[in-house]
Automatic annotation (TrEMBL):
The lineage of its organism: Bacteria, Bacillati, Actinomycetota, Actinomycetes, Kitasatosporales. Gene3D superfamilies: 3.40.50.2300. This is Histidine kinase. One of its GO terms (biological process) is phosphorelay signal transduction system. It holds the Pfam family Response_reg.
Amino acid sequence: MVQKAKILLVDDRPENLLALEAILSALDQTLVRASSGEEALKALLTDDFAVILLDVQMPGMDGFETAAHIKRRERTRDIPIIFLTAINHGPHHTFRGYAAGAVDYISKPFDPWVLRAKVSVFVELYMKNCQLREQAALLRLQLEGGAKAAAAEAKEPAGLLAELSARLAAVEEQAEALSKQLDDDSADAAAVATAAHLERKLTGLRRALDALEPGTGNGAASVPSQN
């Protein structure tokens, strides 16, 4: 069973949080509320999130300051942040949002369909990255624990490599389809860059797996880091 992605909704007004939940409920993911920047940072200490929707104007710690804290933490610095704001002070205000680490900056009132589409892209990228990490972990475990079995029975490693290759091929196919979708939809540059990064990691895994095939002369090839 595929685990749902978590989406963090940060706004000091309950009615705004309720509206966001209504818009994003169709994505069938886990929506987590935070009514302040402090509450959002607390949630980020324990949970992993696919994307953060962050209101700019909040009492106390505003959206810009909250984003700065998020980007300073190694655990959370790569989580995409979409700023939501009811005011627009011109290009300088927008630039400040991007400078704080946002991947997008949307003024209220916003189009629910557009917001849902943008969030769905980052959710899908997050799910693909999770799947890739799981496959990489499985590959490492099999490589570490399969050395003795390979010496005892020659057929077993071949079957194992075939299974891993098939699983990796499935992820590669999904990543290729996602990249085509981003090209067709003229998606955000940040989403395209994340998808390209995912494809590079898949290419590294494929090369490492190919190096383990009999006859390559490199049966001890190492698996590239997926960080």
